[in-house]
Design a protein that fits this description.
Radius of gyration: 21 Å
Bound molecules: flavin-adenine dinucleotide
Strand content: 5-15%
Number of domains: 3
Structural class: alpha+beta
Largest sheet: 7 strands, mixed
Number of strands: 9
Oligomer: single chain
CATH topology of the largest domain: Butyryl-CoA Dehydrogenase, subunit A, domain 3
């Protein structure tokens, strides 16, 4: 499969960026793609792939020190793009652990908390999860119902969480809750699967990202030591800083999934023959391929510009939301067109496009639904919030 790069963006990579991208690409081609489908079908987490993935220099992504990868903004995007070209579940395992969980500790933890948790997480000896969404509070996460009430040198957590990636395999679970003064807080539960009062149940029957586990969590008088409260998280604005970064990487993931779908459709169209000719020779098929190429190129260009802005410290929340809004929508459309080009073979999981198509579905919804990202951009353009 020839990586799609019509505008020669690769020419702009530095040697180290090119080497990292190649390393992740090779891992995806040699380890992820040949092995992922049975896990996806069985809705099982691919531990063997996760173990081999530990050797990639990508953990902790852009964070400095504590054994983290210290990637630049473009490299962080390229990693997520290449993982997306292979498989959405693996990308989400990485994004939840390295972005949401490590990112929360890295951005909002004290120096002691970072030193305590990040090194083992950077070695992937301890896996992290990030619990914000609730059964009754999805898009409206600012109004979480989970409470954390101070009780001596502990907090008592009560409430429930839903959709939490990696929760059932996590060593560190960050729960977002309001304390008795109404302040927002991130509370790190160590060994959540062995903690009294924590019940973690994997959600069944997902049609998207089936090889990563998402769970419902019930918290009943869970005792969390006060020193496990993230030191610099006091408002929803603080957690939004973590989400702004991960949302940036999701723009790249969407572009990677779309690029892989286009690349597979191109390969297929050149070799599949009907009416005595490759289907790529039919105008109607070329129309689909060009539509896909146009969308993927725009997604790539947007990602690259966002990377420049992030590197300069200038990427705004509205820009990130517009990137997410655009790329999540386009990934869905491109994957659907690729599925059409593959005909009946497009619905067979062995050809990968079907899995990527379904994985693209949830990108549309997580890290802010398409509507919420639209509303963030709408507020920026008009100065008027239209959320409620
Ligand atoms: C596979 C998967 C993995 C996830 N991983 C995690 C995780 O690791 N940690 C975590 O905390 N969360 C996670 N989530 C949760 C995710 O962030 C939420 O699903 C998302 O925020 C949307 O919430 P909801 O599903 O409850 O939908 P709802 O918020 O109920 O939205 C339903 C519909 O209403 C629309 N809507 C809502 N409010 C408005 C409004 N004001 N105006 C217009 N339309 C509106 C939405 O756009 C959507 O179309 C995950 C979700 C999925 C599906």
């Amino acid at each position: 499969m020839i990586p799609f790069d019509l505008f020669n963006l690769d020419d702009k990579l530095t040697d180290s960026q090119r080497a990292l991208r190649l390393q992740v690409r090779q891992f995806v081609e040699e380890v992820v793609k040949p092995r992922i489908n049975p896990y996806w079908e069985a809705a099982e987490f691919p531990w063997e792939i996760a173990h081999e993935m530990k050797q990639l220099p990508i953990w902790g992504t852009m964070m400095q020190g504590y054994g983290c990868a210290e990637l630049d903004a473009l490299s962080a995007g390229l990693v997520r793009y290449e993982l997306g070209r292979g498989d959405g579940s693996i990308g989400t395992f990485y994004g939840v652990h390295s972005g949401l969980a490590m990112g929360s500790i890295g951005k909002l933890g004290s120096d002691e908390q970072k030193a305590r948790w990040l090194p083992a997480m950077a070695r992937v000896e301890k896996i992290g999860a990030f619990g914000l969404s609730e059964p009754e509070r999805g898009s409206d996460a600012v109004h979480v119902l989970t409470t954390a009430v101070r009780d001596g040198d502990h907090y008592l957590l009560n409430g429930s969480k839903r959709w939490i990636g990696n929760a059932s395999i996590a060593d560190l679970l960050i729960i977002w809750a309001r304390d008795e003064t109404g302040q927002f807080g991130g509370f790190v539960i160590e060994n959540p699967n062995q903690t009294a009062g924590v019940t973690i149940t994997n959600l069944q029957g997902k049609i998207s990202k089936r090889a990563v586990l998402n769970a419902e969590i019930l918290l009943e008088n869970v005792r969390v030591p006060a020193e496990n409260r993230l030191a610099h998280a006091r408002s929803f604005h603080d957690v939004s800083a973590v989400l702004a970064y991960t949302r940036y990487t999701i723009c790249w993931e969407a572009a990677g999934i779309a690029a892989a779908c286009l690349e597979m459709a191109l390969d297929y169209a050149k070799t599949r023959e009907q009416f005595g000719k490759p289907i790529a020779s039919f105008q109607l098929v070329q129309h689909k391929l060009v539509e896909m190429a146009a969308e993927v190129s725009q997604m790539q260009l947007l990602c690259w510009r966002m990377a420049e802005l992030m590197a300069e410290g200038k990427l705004t929340s509205a820009q990130t939301s517009l990137g997410k809004y655009n790329n999540a929508r386009k990934a869905r459309q491109v994957a659907l067109l690729a599925r059409e080009v593959l005909g009946g073979n497009g619905i067979l999981i062995e050809n990968h496009v079907a899995r990527l198509l379904l994985d693209a579905e949830v990108i549309y919804t997580y890290e802010g639904t398409n509507e919420i990202n639209l509303l963030i951009v709408g507020r920026e353009l008009t100065g008027i919030g239209a959320f409620g």
